[in-house]
Design a protein that fits this description.
Chain lengths: 452, 300
């Protein structure tokens, strides 16, 4: 019973330590990840759901394909990878640590044969003098050596970058730290959004499932603006935000401009510019109108869709308007409105008036000449709200990963052994990486040693 | 000025490619040397073009398909020149320069006008993220070239047809070494690209990772190359298997670069990066330009 139990535990341990498992998990994660890029995630749009059959819909739902990166089996794969990483590291780390902490100091014949790079030469002088000279040489040209005496011969050992052997384990650790950061974020953080109408404030954000979150303070949108390039493409979305505690502005958090790529953070909660829209209570348009045959212009105020009386009878109303007309009519720029005019004789005419081209409407040849002076329209700003206390843990993990990768890929543990006997010096060396590069270093050192 | 530099580069790349292909047929040392000078001259001109465009646009010129493909080509040539000098294998050029030339030709299809930057791309991470990513792509592209040569060479060895071609190609060991070398540079660059992308996403969208197709495919690429790295630790995975995996990896990578945006947008475009856009789509008419990825600034 005990033996089979131990046998099982042993087999399980071996299973988790195996490199085959790592490779299978990596390939498995790569393959399954494709699903979520083909099937829409979250709440798939209804158009999509109409294109798949009911059976498929149920199957996908059961398999968690609509939120596959959070499905039990995908998380299980990630956990298995973590266990695999830890097990592999536990198994291999002591051996690597031993190479670092207890290096082989003496190069005997057997060990010499195992080295791919060796060099032997005759050198005059007694062993002790040679030893001192070579030790000084190594210290200057390579690294400070450790000297051991054995059987009347001196053994010198010198090494460079022994710790780079730990690089792989630093990378493994960094992955685990990133996972921990992600877990902290998912347990103690949230993601939500707020829509704030200009001039108003909110203290509640909503999650994806419309669940309210109390922010603990309020945020007021002072102003929202969009600027455009000459081409009509948006240039900048900007909200001016103020943080309020108990209804009072917080010093240092007043009228802060927030644009895409430059969020506002307060008490661990960050607000990101993400969208905007008209506040919905309708814009107030300003127009002026004058008669073709002279006369002072009359100012008009027209709410969106509302009919306004014109001097001399007739009415007009604004059909639609834009802050930037360029994207609709490339030849023009600036605000514009499409208006409909009902003349007293029952004639109806609709046309566009531009703020930046005040004289244009005269060319229409109508009895009345309209000028558009722009609109007061309230907008709301859409802000993404995120609290993620795990994000710094993730960045720590990322930093460690970069450091670990640099150690693992670009540094090499180089070791040199020199055996000094009377009249005879034997040089041996090895490197953990880039043998071709090390050979150049080794040959160069051997050459210099010879000329010494 | 910009167009002159671009087309001169294209012209020199064309001549260099012809020279490298001629070298494949007649591997003369002088021809190899000439090809090397040509491609180096082309590279310098290409750098001048990129710098000129940078100055003219006032930003890293990797923000639309025309610029991206040109920069991809530039990085491939740059990485190739380094590897070629190190390993002294002219013939690698016969497999790599055509790829660079084709990328340049394809880039001419797309509009060359310098368009103003949309708000989502106005970030200091644009330069870091795109440059690192493209140099990563380039090293994997050279690894891909070496892997193809490996398979051809192995085919000759297996079929015992040790003809002229066999003589011209480098040894299997050398090709495997180049493949591995590229991997040891490509993998760190890919990692840096993913991390810098995550930092950028955090400042722009409030989340460092949101499993959008572009992110997911870059992670898939990372998984594939990580598997290859671990596979190489076991003896059986070197050589042919490593070459095949390097080829698969490069196709996955190409999909990450271009395929994601061209083939997946109907179902899962960059829009879904933000759940706001999904849950409240109708009320967010201008969402799209805010979130798209630098390769495809207008989401198409």
């Amino acid at each position: 019973m005990t033996t089979t139990k131990r046998g099982f535990a042993h087999t399980l341990w071996d299973f988790f330590c195996s490199l085959k498992l790592s490779i299978s998990l990596l390939i498995g994660l790569a393959t399954t990840s494709i699903i979520g890029t083909v099937i829409p995630q979250g709440s798939p749009p209804p158009e999509y759901l109409q294109t798949i059959s009911q059976n498929k819909l149920q199957l996908y739902d059961k398999l968690g394909f609509f939120d596959m990166y959070h499905s039990w089996w995908f998380i299980l794969l990630l956990y298995l990878l973590t266990v695999n990483l830890v097990a592999c590291s536990i198994k291999r780390l002591p051996r690597v640590w031993k190479i670092i902490a207890e290096p082989t100091l003496v190069m005997d014949d057997g060990f010499e044969k195992s080295l791919s790079l060796t060099h032997e030469y005759k050198m005059p002088g007694d062993a002790a003098t040679l030893r001192d000279k070579i030790a000084a040489f190594l210290k200057q040209e390579f690294a400070e050596p450790v000297t051991t005496e054995s059987g009347g011969e001196y053994h010198l050992f010198a090494q460079k970058n022994p710790y780079c052997r730990l690089g792989v384990y630093v990378v493994h650790l960094s992955i685990i730290i990133i996972f921990i950061g992600a877990l902290i974020g998912s347990f103690f953080g949230y993601k939500g959004f707020v829509n704030i109408v200009e001039g108003t404030s909110v203290s509640t954000a909503y999650t994806r499932t419309e669940k309210p979150i109390d922010l603990g303070f309020a945020v007021r949108c002072e102003k929202f603006s969009v600027s455009f390039y000459d081409t009509g493409a948006p240039k900048e979305f900007k909200s001016i935000l103020t943080v309020l505690e108990n209804g009072k502005p917080v010093p240092g958090y007043e009228k802060i401009p927030v644009i895409v790529n430059d969020p506002l953070s307060y008490k661990g909660i960050t607000f990101y510019q993400s969208s905007y829209g008209p506040a919905g209570d309708g814009a107030v348009h300003h127009l002026s109108v004058r008669a073709k045959n002279g006369g002072a212009p009359v100012k008009l105020i027209a709410r969106q869709g509302e009919s306004v009386n014109l001097p001399g009878g007739g009415t007009m109303h604004v059909l639609e308007s834009t802050q930037e007309v360029k994207s609709f009519i490339p030849e023009f720029s600036g605000p514009a409105a499409k208006i409909e005019v009902h003349a007293p004789n029952g004639q109806t005419q609709s046309f566009i008036v531009f703020r930046n081209y005040p004289d244009l409407d005269a060319q229409r040849g109508g009895d009345l000449i309209f000028n558009y002076d722009g609109a007061d329209e309230k907008y709301y700003t859409g802000l993404q709200v995120a609290k993620d206390p795990g994000v710094w843990v993730v960045w720590l993990g990322c930093t460690l990963m970069v450091v670990g990768i640099m150690m693992a890929f670009f540094m090499s543990h180089k070791r040199l052994w020199i055996r000094v006997a009377a009249g005879r010096v034997t040089l041996g060396g090895t490197a953990s990486k880039n043998p071709a590069g090390f050979q150049l270093v080794f040959d160069d050192l051997a050459d210099k040693l010879k000329k010494m | 000025m910009n167009a002159v530099l671009f087309y001169s580069t294209l012209g020199i790349y064309f001549v260099a490619t012809v020279a490298y292909l001629a070298y494949l047929i007649k591997p003369r040392e002088t021809l190899g040397q000439a090809s090397r000078w040509l491609i180096t001259a082309g590279f310098l001109l290409h750098c001048a073009f990129t710098l000129d465009r940078y100055l003219e646009a006032g930003r890293t010129p990797i923000t639309n398909l025309h610029e991206s493909l040109s920069f991809f080509s530039l990085s491939i040539v740059g990485v190739f020149i380094i590897i070629e000098r190190k390993y002294k294998v002219f013939i690698l050029g016969s497999f790599v320069t055509p790829v660079a030339l084709i990328l340049m030709l394809v880039s001419t299809i797309f509009p060359t006008a310098i368009t103003p930057l949309n708000p989502a791309l106005k970030s200091k991470w644009l330069a870091v993220h795109t440059t690192v990513a493209f140099f990563g792509y380039a090293t994997f592209a050279v690894a891909f070239g070496a892997a193809i040569m490996y398979l051809i060479q192995e085919h000759f060895l297996k079929s015992k047809k040790l003809g002229a071609m066999y003589q011209k190609l480098p040894s299997l060991d050398k090709l495997d070494d180049i493949n591995y070398r590229c991997l040891t540079f490509g993998f760190p660059l890919l990692t840096l690209a993913i991390i810098s992308g995550a930092i950028w996403a955090e400042t722009a969208w409030g989340t460092y990772w949101s499993w959008d197709p572009k992110e997911t495919w870059s992670l898939i690429t990372w998984f594939v190359y990580a598997a290859l790295l671990h596979g190489r630790l076991t003896t059986g995975w070197r050589g042919k298997k490593a070459a095949i995996l390097a080829i698969i990896g490069f196709f996955v990578l190409l999909f990450t670069f271009i395929g994601v945006n061209l083939l997946l947008p109907g179902l899962h475009s960059a829009q879904s990066l933000d759940f706001l856009a999904r849950t409240k789509k109708s009320s967010f008419p201008i969402w799209k330009p805010i979130v798209s990825h630098p390769d495809f600034p207008d989401g198409n």
